[in-house]
Structure formats: C-alpha cells, structure tokens
Amino acid sequence: MYGDSVITLKGKILNRNRVIIMKKHLLPLLVAACAVSGTTSLEAKTTAGSNNSALRGVEASSLRKAMDGYARRYDNLRPVDGRFPRDYRLVQLCLLLDTSNSMDGLINQAKSQLWQIVNELSRMNKRGENIRLEVALYEYGNNDLPATSGYIRQVTPFTENLDLLSEALFSLDTNGGSEYCGHVIGSSLNQLRWNSSTEGLKMIFIAGNEPFNQGTVNYEVACRWAAGKDIAVNTIYCGDYGTGIGTFWQRGAVLGGGSYFAIDSDRDAGGIPTPYDDDLVMLNSRINSTYVPYGRVGKESYARQSQQDVNASKLSAPVSAARTASKGSKLYKASEWDLVDALEDRTITVDKLRKEELPEELRNMSPGQLNGYVQKKKSEREEVKGRITELSRKREAYIVQQQKQSGGEQTLGSVILKNLRSRAEAKNFTYR
C-alpha cells in the first residue's frame, strides 16, 4: 500500500518501498516489456490524490513509449499527420472485422445490418442538432494480406459516404488466417483521424473468434491506449460467451473502456419482413431519379449508388427496405457528387460549373435553367423523403413488435445498436 494507491503484478500486492521504486523506475520498463512479450499482465488501480495522478502520468508515458516502439516496426502503426476534426456532434465508428476462413457469417451480418445501424443513428441528435456520422472499416486475419502488415488492411478510412462503406463491405472475402487483435486496434488508433472533441462519440467494434492476445502488438497496451484517448474498445466474440472470456475478449473490453459481447455469427441477419417493404423499394427508384451527378466523381458515384441498391436487394427485401429508409434520412448525403445536395450545402454554385462536369443532357442549359432544373429535383426529393419517413416509422414500429414476440437476437448489428444507445446517453446524445 502507498497512500490510496494499490499496484498488483500477476495478482501479488507489492509493499510500500517496492511501490515507490516501481513508480520512479520500473513501471515504464514493465509496460514496454508487456508490449513486446505479449504475455505479462500489468494492472494499475488508483483511487485519489496526487499519488494517483503521478501514477497515471507514468503509465500514460509508458504506453506512449510502447506504441512508439511498435510504430518503428510496422508502417501501419505510424501515426498520421495533418488536421483532425473537432466537432461535438460527430459520431465515429470503427469496425474491425475478422476475415479469416470461418467468418463468412460475420461479414454477411455486417452487410445486412449496416442500414439498420444507420437508421438508428439517424434519430440521434446533440443539443437539438443532427449528428454527423463517420465510419471506418478494417479487415484482419486474412492470409491474402501481407504478413508485414500483421495481416491487416484499412479498407476505408473514416467516411460519411455510406455507399462507399457498403461497397467496401461487399469487397470483403475470407481466407486464412492469423488474427492479431492488438495490432489492428493499434493501427486503427494511429492511422485514423479521430475527433479531438471530448464531447464526440468515438467507438471501436472488433469482432472475431480467435484468442485476443495473439501477435507481437500487445492487446493490453493497445486497449489502454484507446481508453486514454476516450475511444471505447467494444469486443464481440463470435462463439460461446464463456470461451470469449477465457480467450481475453472480455479483458480487452475492460481495459479499453468498452463492453464485451458474444454472438452467433452464423445466424441469418436478413431482417424481419414487413408490410411496408415493397412500397419502400418502389420509393427507392423514385428517389434515385432525383440525383444529378456532377464533377469528377459524379458518374462513378451515381453508378455506385445503383450497385449498392442491387447488393442490398440480393440479400433480402427487408435489407433493401432498410437501405431505402437510410436514403430518406439526414445521414445519407451526396454533396461531393450530387448537385441537389451540393447546392443545398452551398459547396458549389451553378455559375461555377464547367459544362464538362455535367451529364451530357444538361450541358446546353444556362445557369438559370440548370438551377431551375435542380430546384425541381430538390422538391421531388423532399416529397419522396417525406413518404419514406412515414413508411419507415410504421416499418420500425412493426419490427419492434415482432422482436418483442420473438425475444430478439444477438447479432453483430443488435449488439452494436445496444452499445450505441448506452454510450450515446453517457455523452449527452439524445434520440428523437
């Protein structure tokens, strides 16, 4: 004992003199050694007073040194430079998905339940304002990826482009592999542009089915590093709940300030059919006709939108209906390629557009004619969105009722949504 501080190493309580030595000299070395060996468990528990602050400072410094050491060994653990967002309304979700051979079911759940998650988030606000949503995607444990990267790939950095995210999910294939949870968590912490505002919501969801402590990057260091940056690490074990505890998945969540879940990754996640699905799918075609592609990525993005409609429809009618509901929400924005959204967000004006940036059928229009055309499309979209919102509310109420009768389910999407609600409340986000 030393003041109000207690330090345990492998479960043994250290005496006062040894604690003093630990604080001054040994703690940085032990944390670094923990990072390299991947086998040593180091716990520091503090309750109050200046001794606690000093101990936390020593641990933070030691964690930084350990992460710096990893960054010298692996390119994908080097921190990115440049500007980082600062926005109290920003919700950032980072999905770390195991794409080894046994994880086809997990990937299918991610594809199927993306729009369900988006629809839940679309009802969230902060101080009466709509939130901003950014999602990043990593895959790990795939033998098609380089061993020098730890079998890890950043599929997409943080993006607000939901079609791009859907495309990224559908690009995933399973193979292998060697699943290094500490490495992929560390990579996502250092390679993504996380919100610097303490009022934002920052969450990692890592899902897989192999022991959490594999690899040369120690998961304890990575998870503690995340918690120190106010980024909650939520762990999702694909299998038996007790097995996940025994293979350190729960431990990772505790150290990362997050929650632990276990799911059946092979459960069908096609969704609950409702009487409103067909009408929503029909409205999807109508809302698509209101998009006016422009600029360098206009044609490509318009085609991507259509392809993700096809991908959703191949999964099931409920998934397709959920995607339509998302397209009617505030979170589905396309200002980087759609003139309707771009003019509304004031990211561009029609008089500054070059003719070659427009679809061929619009190139002979004057600025006034083009503006009138876009405003007409905007009115059409608002009308369709109103109808989508109306049907989506009825659809959601129907699904909630069906879930009460069936007792619900534990899938990737359901545990993410459960965790989002509790974390959002703690950060003063509210739901409409």
What does this protein look like?
This protein folds into three domains: 6-73, no CATH class; 90-267 and 411-431, von Willebrand factor, type A domain (Rossmann fold); 277-406, no CATH class. The relative contact order is 0.12. Residues 1-50 have low confidence and may be disordered. The protein has helices at 16-37, 49-73, 104-121, 162-170, 181-191, 219-228, 241-246, 249-255, 277-288, 298-315, 317-327, 339-345, 367-406, 412-426, and strands at residues 6-9, 12-13, 42-45, 90-98, 124-126, 129-130, 132-140, 152-159, 201-208, 232-238, 257-263, 430-431. The protein is of the alpha/beta class and 432 residues long. Strands 8-7-4-9-10-11 form a six-stranded mixed β-sheet, with helices on both faces. It has a three-stranded antiparallel β-sheet with strand order 2-1-3, covered by helices on one side.
Main attributes of the structure:
3 domains, three-stranded antiparallel sheet, Rossmann fold, disordered N terminus, six-stranded mixed sheet, globular, alpha/beta, 432 residues
Provide a compact summary of the structure:
This protein has 432 residues and is an alpha/beta fold. The protein has helices at 16-37, 49-73, 104-121, 162-170, 181-191, 219-228, 241-246, 249-255, 277-288, 298-315, 317-327, 339-345, 367-406, 412-426, and strands spanning 6-9, 12-13, 42-45, 90-98, 124-126, 129-130, 132-140, 152-159, 201-208, 232-238, 257-263, 430-431.
